[in-house]
Amino acid sequence: MRQIIWLLFQREWQLAWRRPGDLLNPLIFFAIVITLFPLAVGPEPQLLQRMASGIIWVAALLATLLSLDGLFRSDFEDGSLEQWVLSPHPLTLLVLVKVLHHWLMCGLLLVLLAPVLGLMLALPWSVMPTLCITLLLGTAVLSLLGAIGAALTVGLKGSGSMLLALLILPLYIPVLILGTGAMDAALQGLPVLGYLLWLGCLALLALSLAPLAIAAGLRISVSE
Amino acid sequence: MSWTFFHKLGSPKWFYGISGKLLPWLTVASVLLLAVGCVWGLVFAPEDYQQGNSFRIIYIHVPAAILAQSCYMMLAAAGIVGLVWRMKLADVALQCAAPIGAWMTFVALITGSIWGKPTWGTYWEWDARLTSMLILLFLYFGIIALRMAISNRDTAAKATAVMAIVGVVNIPIIKYSVDWWNTLHQPATFTVTEKPAMPAEMWLPLLVMVLAFYGLFALNLLLRMRLEVLRREHKARWVREILEKSA
Amino acid sequence: MSKQQIDVIELACERDERELFSAVSFCLQAGEVLQVAGPNGAGKTSLLRILAGLMPATAGDIHFAKKSILAGSGREHWRRNLLYIGHAPAVKAALTAEENLSWLCALTQPVGREVIWQALGQVGLRGFEDVPCRQLSAGQQRRVALARLYLPGAPIWILDEPFTALDQAGVLTLEQHIMAFAASGGRVVLTTHHSLAHVAGVRRLELGRVS
Questions:
Q1: Interatomic CA distance for residues C186 and C31, integer angstroms
Q2: Is the dihedral of CA A71, A72, A75, A81 positive or negative?
Q3: Does residue B6 fall inside a structural domain?
Q4: Using a CB-CB distance cutoff of 8 angstroms, which residues of chain A are in contact with residue C53?
Q5: How many domains does chain B have?
Q6: Which of B26, B32, B138, B144 is the most exposed, having the fewest neighbouring CB atoms within 10 Å of its CB?
């Protein structure tokens, strides 16, 4: 069991490093979306600071969603998923490792980039730890939930990514509310631990239930 | 006994027969309830001391909102039955109920915003309930879009079932987070739907209307399901016999 | 092993209200090779996918060692004994032949590096072990997938069009390998448009309406 987890992690790692574009594109997207807002609403620091947490969170949400669209696609197209489904190892475990790997790559990079963009949106240094921790916990939930949609839409040709957004964005709302709520509290100098605990709860819930739905979704998509 | 009933429910032919017998009763009951509820609620119920006559829209708004939520629960229940017991009829129910649920959500949103004009002075207020309703509408759209996007019927059935179950797990989380978001941003708003003590003359007609809406929902669902069952089973002999008889 | 016979009972498959096949029954003993034949659209691939457990059947059942493979412990047992190579060969273009093979094996039973190199040598890919598969030709990629047949493991093979993209020498080697595998007690179900008439001991199952 431990061996297969390690081997899968290794495989995902190799695949990610041989196609660095897939890793970097969501990050660039994240930066571009955030750049659009000052251009659209004007560069006044007060206004930007007021909107910063919302902008960063919405951009992170969309970037995660876009990066998830391809999560299972190549494995589906080249037949790897069939082999996964037929493997005696539990599919839930395999998808959990795959999604967690995606989170470590995509989520972690977003977290590293977010403070820089936060500075550009006039966020004070004091809220950066909150920003990073909420994003780290939040993107875990986003990856896990989004992977359900990715699994269900992986077999669709063409319209898959739009449908993925339609299916999953409503489910992202609690994370968005909690994440931006924590940021607002931090900006006002209020304690944020409660928000973090709630986000942690959501992450644990998603961690325990989402793999079941992802595996079910993949089985359905493969069986077509 | 109960199990034979359950298994019979899986047979489209049996469903078609029993629903045919049920239809007239259901029609009479829901039309009667609707008539009584409308007249009672719109004519005889007393005026609200704060809102005057405009409050009477609750006799449409509240039943539609209740139905919109319970319809989603039903989708998830049908999804579980379809996935666990592989019952085809559950999928038919899921497919037919989703548009009705979406319409009910839409009606609740429209009546809510019409009601908002005299109460809040604006058609749209980011009120917790209305916002949750809007998100529910999006969830319905997702399910309907997923169903339409997948061409293979069995695959579409299973995928929508999974999505409905995922949605139903998320609905309470979404609802609580939106409520909480609302209190965070607009402390102590006047929420019209939460009247603490409504006199019996007001809520009794409301109860009748809720029952009438459930009746109409069941009627609409049965009609749609019967049509869908005929479409799916068009090759079966019993369907041909029915069609020849009616032709 | 002889007790573990495969029984396919009255299998039917319907897709989008079109019946592909119905009442397909056969049993497969150790040492037998079954070629599923029929025109395009007769449901060959569907039958193989149902047999592998990737797709649900509309009706019917499949038994292996007297247990249904469609659920529960029977399915578990079936998967441990099965090797399925589908239309898409499950070879990742970004990984090397060796990496691909070692991961595919790990899904059932991890094997050592020497064994993998040996298998790659047997399908004629010696010297290509460290080449990313995107640089290989279609036939060579197919060979990477087929190298799994040269590794120790499952006693039942389900192969969908295994001869696609192979050159003549490759086809011949594969035919001989399949027959040798059957002779040693293995079981093979395969589809192919390539004629196996010259190979002795291959059973045929015709799908599709007789017109």
A1: 5
A2: positive
A3: no
A4: 86
A5: 1
A6: B32
**Amino acid letter, A208:** S
pTM of the model: 0.91
Q: Where are the domains of chain A?
A: 1-223
CATH number at residue B210: 1.20.120
Residues 6 or more apart in contact with residue B23 via CB below 8 angstroms: B219, B222, B223
Rg (CA), chain A: 18
Answer whether residue B10 is part of any domain. Answer: no
Query: How confident is the model over B109-118, as pLDDT tens digits?
Result: 999 999 888 8
Give the number of other Cβ atoms within 10 Å of residue C136's Cβ: 19
Per-residue pLDDT at B110: 94
Verify whether the Cβ–Cβ distance A163 to B146 is below 8 Å. yes
Residues recorded for chain A: 224
Taking the Cβ of residue B172 and every Cβ of chain A, the question of whether any pair is shorter than 8 Å is answered with no
Is residue B4 assigned to a domain? no
Q: What SS3 string covers B119-135?
A: HHCCCCCCCHHHHHHHH
- Which residues of chain B lie closer than 8 angstroms to A171, CB-CB? 166-167, 170, 174
The chain A residues in contact with chain B (CB within 8 A) are: 148, 152-153, 155-156, 159, 163, 166-167, 169-171, 173-174, 177-178, 181, 184, 202, 209, 213, 216-217, 220-221, 223-224
Bridge partners for C8 per DSSP: C26, C62
Structure-token pair, residue C147: 């190298």
Chain B closest-CA separation from residue A18 CA (Å)? 32
Nearest by CB: C15 against B152, B232, B235: B152
Query: Are A59 and A30 within 8 A, CB to CB?
Result: yes
CA B101 to chain centre: 4
C17 touching B (Cβ < 8 Å): yes
Strand partners, C18: C15
pLDDT tens profile A18-57: 888 888 999 999 999 999 999 999 999 999 999 999 999 9
DSSP B57-115: GHHHHHHHHHHHHHHHHHHHHHHHHHHHH--HHHHHHHHHHHHHHHHHHHHHHHHHHHH
Residue ranges making up the domain that contains B232: 20-189+197-245
Q: Band the pLDDT of B187: cuts 50, 70, 90.
A: very low
Share of chain B above pLDDT 90, in %: 52
Percentages helix, strand, coil for chain C (3-state, rounded to 5) are 35, 25, 40
CATH (one of 3.30.10.20, 3.40.50.300, 3.40.190.10, 3.40.30.10) for C6-206 = 3.40.50.300
Q: Which residue of C has its CA nearest to B232?
A: C17
Do B147 and B182 meet the contact criterion of CB atoms below 8 Å apart? no
Minimum Cα–Cα distance from C74: chain A residue: A88
Structural domain includes residue B8:
no
Q: Average pLDDT per run of 10 along chain C, which is 211 residues long?
A: 75 83 87 88 89 88 86 85 89 90 87 88 88 90 91 89 89 91 91 82 75 35
Measured CA to CA in angstroms, residue C68 lies from A219, B87, C14, C172 at distances of 19, 20, 20, 35
Among B99, B129, B89, smallest CA distance to B112 is for: B129
Q: Contact A177/B149, CB-based, under 8 Å?
A: no
Res. B99 pLDDT band, cuts 50 70 90: very high
Q: Phi and psi (nearest 5°) for C23?
A: 55, 45
